[in-house]
Amino acid sequence: MDLPTLWFLLIAVFWAGYLVLEGFDFGVGMLLPVLAKKPEERDAMVRTFGPVWDGNEVWLLVAGGATFAAFPNWYASMFSALYLPLLILLVSLIVRVLAIEYRRKQENDPVWTARWDWALAISSLLAPAMVAAALANVVRGIKMDANSDYTGSFFDLLSPYALLGVVAVLALFLLHGATFLGLRTEGVLRERSRRFALGIWPVATVLVAAFGLWSLLGQGDGIAVLGVVGVLMAVAGLVGSGLALLKDNEAIAFAGTVLTIVGAAVLLFAQLWPNVLPSTGDPAGTLTVAEAASSHYTLKVMTWVAVLIAPVVFLYQGWSYWIFRHRITSDGFSTAKSPLDALKQRAAHEG
Questions:
Q1: Average pLDDT score, the chain
Q2: Which of 279, 201, 286, 289 is nearest to 239 (CA)?
Q3: Angle 160-184/187-218 helices, nearest 10 degrees?
Q4: pLDDT per residue as tens digits for the range 307-340
Q5: Which tens digits make up the pLDDT trace of 13-59?
Q6: What is the spatial distance between Cα 219 and Cα 349, in angstroms, rounded to a whole number?
Q7: How large a percentage of the chain has pLDDT more than 90?
Q8: Interatomic CA distance for residues 115 and 128, integer angstroms
Q9: What is the 3-state secondary structure (H, E, C) of the chain?
Q10: How far apart are the first and last CA of the chain?
């Protein structure tokens, strides 16, 4: 396997990791005004992903940075064409960070907290919507001239395929977030999460199946074998998740949504290969993996850096998930100063 192919696969892995990890905290953020009826319940929901959300966003930075370094032509053309969706994504992520950090800065002001909670919910919806729109347009192709410069308008990005991708991803992330909440909470929040997951599951299944079939049959240069594998993984994950929800097995249900998201990533990048950015305008503007790649020396240095640093990052993130693996209750957090403090309170309560 040559280095451009290796880095195309690594970028696909980075995107899959980002969608799996950030997908559940996007889902929890969107569900904030839906499932929580009291301030302490909203606090508990935010604290389910509070210790890990910033680590999850690292995967997006790594995917973007790796694209810039390994495929600079891809990065330049993609960011030029998708400037507005990616700008909305960036603003949404900034607002989301502010909402998480500032929502409890004035604990005695319920209006302050409620406004930041709504900001968190809206930004948690807009961010994945823009990610989905960007990925769908990259797979479908973008109107470019022979120099791979964008020649379309913003409305060219709002194709039926891209819009279906947006609603499918939002439904899937709502299911992913609800199963995560069921895995991390207890009591009334756990029960509400399970009921919501059972309700959104058929919607997500239909939308993801429709988007998957359209991606497989209507996008790319043909039907890729790995694309078929991706569709089968996505379907198997959704079926397994639904059956697990009926049997109150939240761990299997969450594993099912993880498998579905990974399958969707496999499908999209398999259909994209051997291109990195197809042109729907002048065919000469299509960028292939080989044409868009950096020099052999650059890719060789990047590979050695990844081999040395990636295991440390994976170990640290795995450790942080292990430390914060316990279920969270809505009571007790109102007096806790931090997630670690809350876990100590819970351990003391359980003896």
A1: 88
A2: 201
A3: 150
A4: 988 888 889 888 888 877 777 776 654 455 555 6
A5: 999 999 999 999 999 999 999 998 888 888 888 888 888 888 888 89
A6: 55
A7: 47
A8: 21
A9: CCHHHHHHHHHHHHHHHHHHHHHHHHHHHHHHHHHCCCHHHHHHHHHHHCCCHHHHHHHHHHHHHHHHHHCHHHHHHHHHHCHHHHHHHHHHHHHHHHHHHHCCCCCCCHHHHHHHHHHHHHHHHHHHHHHHHHHHHHHHCECECCCCCECCCHHHHCCHHHHHHHHHHHHHHHHHHHHHHHHHECHHHHHHHHHHHHHHHHHHHHHHHHHHHHHHHHCCCCCCHHHHHHHHHHHHHHHHHHHHHHCCCHHHHHHHHHHHHHHHHHHHHHHHCCEEECECCCHHHCEEHHHHCCCHHHHHHHHHHHHHHHHHHHHHHHHHHHHCCCCECCCCCCCCCCHHHHHHHHHHHHC
A10: 55
* Contact status, residue 164 vs residue 132, Cβ threshold 8 Å: no
User: What per-residue confidence (pLDDT) applies to 127?
Assistant: 94
Going by C-alpha positions, the residue among 273, 304, 258, 302 that lies closest to residue 17 is: 258
Cα(43)–Cα(39) distance, integer angstroms:
6
- When mean pLDDT is compared across 28-32, 125-129, 155-159, 255-259, the lowest value belongs to 155-159
Rounded distance between C-alpha atoms, residue 288 and residue 71, angstroms:
10
Residue 115 is predicted with a pLDDT of 92
In b/e form, how buried is each residue of 72-103, taking b as 16+ CB within 10 angstroms? ebbbbbbbebbeebbebbeebbebbeebbeeb
Q: Residue 255 has which token pair?
A: 């594993």
Among 343, 348, 323, which Cα is nearest to 333's? 343
What region, left, alpha or beta, does residue 338 occupy, with left being phi > 0 and alpha being psi -120 to 50 degrees?
beta
Whole-prediction pTM: 0.89
Mean pLDDT of 238-265: 93
